[in-house]
Amino acid sequence: MTPLIEVENIGKTYGSVIALSDVSTVVNAGEVTCVLGDNGAGKSTLIKVLAGVHQHDRGSFRVEGEEIRFSSPRDALDHGIATVYQDLAVVPLMSVWRNFFLGSEPTTKFGFLDRRKGREITRKALSDMGIDLRDVEQPVGTLSGGERQCVAIARAVHFGAKVLILDEPTAALGVKQAGVVLKYVAQARDRGLGVVLITHNPHHAYPVADRFLLLKRGRALGSYEKSEIGIGELTKQMAGGAELEALEHELRGVQA
Amino acid sequence: MTPLIEVENIGKTYGSVIALSDVSTVVNAGEVTCVLGDNGAGKSTLIKVLAGVHQHDRGSFRVEGEEIRFSSPRDALDHGIATVYQDLAVVPLMSVWRNFFLGSEPTTKFGFLDRRKGREITRKALSDMGIDLRDVEQPVGTLSGGERQCVAIARAVHFGAKVLILDEPTAALGVKQAGVVLKYVAQARDRGLGVVLITHNPHHAYPVADRFLLLKRGRALGSYEKSEIGIGELTKQMAGGAELEALEHELRGVQA
Amino acid sequence: MTVTATAPPAADERLGKPRALDQLVKRPEIGAMLGALLVFLFFSVVTEQFLSVGGAATWLDDASMLGIMAVAVALLMIGGEFDLSAGVMTASTALVTALLATRLGLNVWLSLLVSLAFALAVGALNGWLVMRTGLPSFIVTLGSFLALQGLNLGVTRLVTGSVQVSGMRETAGYESAGFLFASTFQIGGTSFFVSIIWWVLFTVVASVVLLRTRFGNWIFAVGGAAQNARSVGVPVVRSKILLFMTTAFAAWLVGSINILRYASVQANQGIGEEFKYIIAAVIGGCLLTGGFGSAVGAAIGALIFGMARQGIVYAGWNSDWFQLFLGVMLLAAVLVNNVLRRRAERVRR
Amino acid sequence: MTVTATAPPAADERLGKPRALDQLVKRPEIGAMLGALLVFLFFSVVTEQFLSVGGAATWLDDASMLGIMAVAVALLMIGGEFDLSAGVMTASTALVTALLATRLGLNVWLSLLVSLAFALAVGALNGWLVMRTGLPSFIVTLGSFLALQGLNLGVTRLVTGSVQVSGMRETAGYESAGFLFASTFQIGGTSFFVSIIWWVLFTVVASVVLLRTRFGNWIFAVGGAAQNARSVGVPVVRSKILLFMTTAFAAWLVGSINILRYASVQANQGIGEEFKYIIAAVIGGCLLTGGFGSAVGAAIGALIFGMARQGIVYAGWNSDWFQLFLGVMLLAAVLVNNVLRRRAERVRR
Amino acid sequence: GPTGTNTQNTGGNNSSQASGDLKVSVITHGTAGDAFWSVVKVGAEDAGKQLGVGVTYNSDGDPGAQAKLIDNAVSQKVGGIVVSMANPDALKTSVENAVKAGIPVITINSGSAKSAEFGAMAHVGQEETIAGEEAGEKLKAAGKTKLLCVIHEAGNSGLNQRCDGARSGFGGAVENLQVDISNPTDIEARIRAKLQSDASVDGVLALNPQVAVNAASAIKGASSKAQVATFDLNADVVSAIKAGEVLFAVDQQQYQQGYLPVVMLKLFKDNANTLGGGKPVLTGPGFVDKTNVDKVAEYAKNGKR
Ligand SMILES: Nc1ncnc2c1ncn2[C@@H]1O[C@H](COP(=O)(O)OP(=O)(O)OP(=O)(O)O)[C@@H](O)[C@H]1O
Ligand SMILES: Nc1ncnc2c1ncn2[C@@H]1O[C@H](COP(=O)(O)OP(=O)(O)OP(=O)(O)O)[C@@H](O)[C@H]1O
Ligand SMILES: [Mg+2]
Ligand SMILES: [Mg+2]
Q1: Chain D residues with at least one Cβ partner in C under 8 Å
Q2: What is the pTM of this model?
Q3: Residue contact E68–D310, C-beta within 8 A
Q4: Ordered structural domains, chain C, with CATH
Q5: Residue D31 region, left (φ>0) first, then alpha (ψ -120 to 50), else beta?
Q6: What does the DSSP 8-state code read for residue D16?
Q7: How far apart are alpha carbons D11 and B132 in whole angstroms?
Q8: B90 alpha carbon to ligand 1 midpoint, in Å?
Q9: Least confident segment among C197-201, C335-339, D341-345
Q10: Average of per-residue pLDDT across B9-16
Q11: In a designed cystine with D310, which of B167, B200, B206, D59 is the match (CB 3.0 to 4.6 A)?
Q12: Is the pLDDT assigned to residue D222 strictly greater than 50?
């Protein structure tokens, strides 16, 4: 079976800043690939290439075995790659349901927006995630950070076709909401989608992921199958090995 | 000893939205008060009142025993309350060091900006947090989410006087950086500061906090001393009790 | 299997009880409407002729031409861009039509078609330049503003030796084209210009497009956060270019109405008008930063403008102070509008 | 005890090696500078007199008056606001000075003081209204633009019966005030107007304030993200009001130079100029959305303007096409500027 | 005649193409696109073409900018300057500097009172005030009792002077109305509104042919009994005069205000001739009405009247 997405030795520079170099990984159908790493490690850059926001400078990028270079996010969407960005990609002044359907608006048979349908689906999708909004007509900008996150996730889940990419989806979420998101990730995987998940929380990453890609300062630090690594080792690797132990020790020291 | 901050039955509405009502808590010197709750529970609203961004509509708010109502964030700062906002409160187009010192610029004896000093202190404060920036002259807008968070935290820590308020400071941070922030929180507490910490991660909250304030839909759900509650119970309370168990069960079910 | 235990409750305990008035002011145009009502009442009371049918015909006429442009400019502003060349474009299109019809002897209808093509081309060029260079549209369209202004004068003088083109009345097809663009209709014995109907029509179409179509949704999105809109798959470049072309189309419409109605056009017509369009749109609730606004609001903004301009004349106030009255009146209207909108926004949340 | 193991490394492996040219273009003004150089070279080659001392005196003079305003407006724009009343303010201040001196017989110095107070008051009022109402400054200052325009005309006609005030040459203190504001100095046998010195001085002061003082830091902050700046303790309201007052001060300076140099002032002076100030600032690198720009850049933007305007006259091109040349030239300058700035931004990251 | 030295349509604006070495700079206060000044420009350029003189025409309504244009011409060391002085005070220094630099200056249109004082060689044209005055007198003679004077550019001193002149010439009640030349709908609507609210107005004096046409249709719209008179001509005004919709058009024959100074400068350079003996050379006003409109119509079409 060809992987849904396969990148090999991919590289990306912003002007003179090398944000990503020589990174390889695969995303298989029915599997979760988890990208981990420090702040500024290049995680968002990687998924922006996958999502068609930026284009890679070096290396190869294949979708279903076919060498590709997306010209726009629309292009990626049309190839079945849906993305939730870290900065959420919502339009603050627009209402919740209009944001939900942005770019994929439902229309009636006369070509007009089907507003009733739009509102209902949005309300349903959000309440499935445990978010009950007062009003899906309110501007997204007036939602709390976590609520906004949920809108973006609900949108990607609803429209996601083959690959679902999530950039730190649980960062701003409460315990319950985070749990719901993870459940969605697991559900999507079980429906046969390929999922790319970025997170800083090993407790969120470990239960759902099948493969871990560790980045550091733009380079791959390692790539592990779930069978190869335990949560303890993963956490240690995420924090850059030995450094964390010193820190934990110190934190405990201060507490005492 | 009078508490540094004391709020009693405080309430705040945005237009016809009641974001906060009847919430009481204290912040003592040398203690960490942790505010927990779902998305949209009113946590940010509470600390915005404490920080002088908004004003409360009802209830009483005392700083060092004195009834107060801040007219502006400057006012709060002058009372020794430094805040890191969830939306970071940085100016994207300005350079890192100018952001770091914004509102409290260092000047030479002629009244001009002391740019060398500004740059050096900024670089030092950030590298103390484990962030080594290429250039403190680069615009904050070009930093990664986590790097930006670190700038905001470093600033508040550097200028924080009596009370340090942090709204989800670890949300966007890597494991290592989160550890550093928690260390800072513990250090600040040990130096005798009062700290208000908002987080969704019980693993971050439990080690450092002395008191937990649980909010739900704008109301206090409970307030606990650390001695009164364990991390398991806390996590359960944060997720709204029974609901979580069902969810966890399901997540595991899906995984299997 | 649903995870959430709480179904969305019919009444949310976090909502204070909304007052009746607040419910009324949920629409974004309501502020401008009240502003318009104030101006209307004021001049109805202060002057005699303002409220008469003849009076209404006068200020509606004035408002209509401004209104067509204001609505188009409002769409563009919601889409996050400016078009400073919109004013001179009304003259350019009229000049093209007039020169073709009077000098080359083309049929008026054909001339109108050519000038429409010209307008759309300029609009597309504006949009393409803005998107291609990434420069603010304020600057790019300022360039086309100056260029068109120069062309208008230069070409007119080159061809006619004077600064105006006249003599449309003798051209072929003038009557029939004039009927469509510049005729009058009777209400209560008073003639109203057909431009008023164009205005209403244009506003309705723009409003429907904005609120009821995918393209309308995209206009809000590209104005509110173009980068984010792009990442969810909205064709940003195409949408913005279409908006510039819409403005150009409106300028063509106004230019055609003008040339057919006055049968002559002056080369420096339309200069300075572009700001009035923007002002009317802003009075009607458009944000200068894009992403928010309404077509109906812009039309009402133009109405306020028209009523104030003509009302001052009806009131017989010394016209030396004209601009002072206008300034004070606009500011008052915007302030009322603003207070109301804030209130509305509070409710909407 | 430090937690981090890695000290900031001298060379960061994540940085590609910067090219020499890229290093050169780090300053934001460099784009405008190149634009200015292009325009300069162009007219030096195309015309004879442009490069002469007399020629330089002419275009520097033209640039200086625009430049003083452009720099002030640039500060305001960096602070995130517009002032559309800046143009008419130059006429209002001149009118106040002239009316006081010629009609009430006040000493010129005293008249200048009064008009300065008037200017600062209007500036403060603009700023206060903007901050108080939360309306966009575009709209508020549009109101004051219209109001001042009306006042200029109305008061002038009321007092003098005509649309201009003249007769300054006979007033007390004209000589000494004229020396400060409107005298000339000799370089190579050619007289240069002292306004050029004022322009340079104003630019230098503005630049130092912007880059080297706390207030300058605040200007960037309130323009880039006012709400965020407020949360970290920047006095947003005070800063913005001060910026409006700075613009008003500059308008007073230009108005005073005008009235003392031309000894008369026309009521409709300055109308339309406000956009040229904004254009010059944008050419100089200011963002329309605030938070980014440079004072020196704005001064250079004014220089481009001055050179282009006078250069076209030197070239003897048909003035019918004047605006066309100007439009093309401005667009070209901005495009060059833009390409360079992008390059610079890539480096800066 | 000596035509054809320059066949270029845009006129002798490019000095390098002129056969003679005399360069004349015409600097007026008319705004670009103003109908009146357009004719002046055509006059000056025609003279340049015919006499082989390099003529450049520039204009700016702002006195300060106009002064800078004079400075510019002085630094170009042109052979002669023609300038209209709507605001003599503001131009004083610049004109005197030009004279000091040995450049002959001729003033046109307005500023005749200060012309000699500033050292100008001659003045061609007639004060706007006087033109307005005669228009006022003619309207009064036509039996009008209340006049509306339409200013299409607020603060333009030339236009204001015409209305002031009309006021003194008319004797009776004259009211000013301000409109905006860039918006014809607004012009028509405001005139209509004025006529609707004041039925006693029986004469409208427009200062621009386009305004005159708008005024005529406004009168129809308001079913008023007023009649229009105007400054300057275009094809529409000509046919309106024929149709009796426009009473008369003031014709300052401003073509000569552009043409004559170039001739005078040429003659001065070639033979040191002067004209007018220190007194202004008057070019108008003439009047175009039903009696002579047919004669003038053709020239109006070419932009020469
Ligand atoms: N548009 C840009 N221009 C220049 N540099 C950029 C740009 N975007 C990102 N970078 C730089 O590239 C590096 C990688 O950024 P990226 O956003 O991919 O990090 P990340 O791993 O997502 O970090 P975080 O966990 O904090 O979100 C960072 O050092 C960042 O400063
Ligand atoms: N400016 C505002 N206007 C109207 N409603 C607001 C405003 N700010 C917040 N709210 C509403 O008040 C409620 C509380 O918001 P708040 O930001 O305090 O939540 P929070 O607890 O910080 O959530 P999160 O964990 O997601 O950050 C939310 O429902 C939000 O929609
Ligand atoms: Mg990231
Ligand atoms: Mg929050």
Answers
A1: 133-136, 138-140, 142-151, 153-154, 157-158, 272, 275, 279, 282-283, 287-289, 318, 320-328, 330-331, 334-335, 338, 342
A2: 0.85
A3: yes
A4: 48-336 (1.10.3470)
A5: alpha
A6: P
A7: 12
A8: 17
A9: D341-345
A10: 85
A11: D59
A12: yes
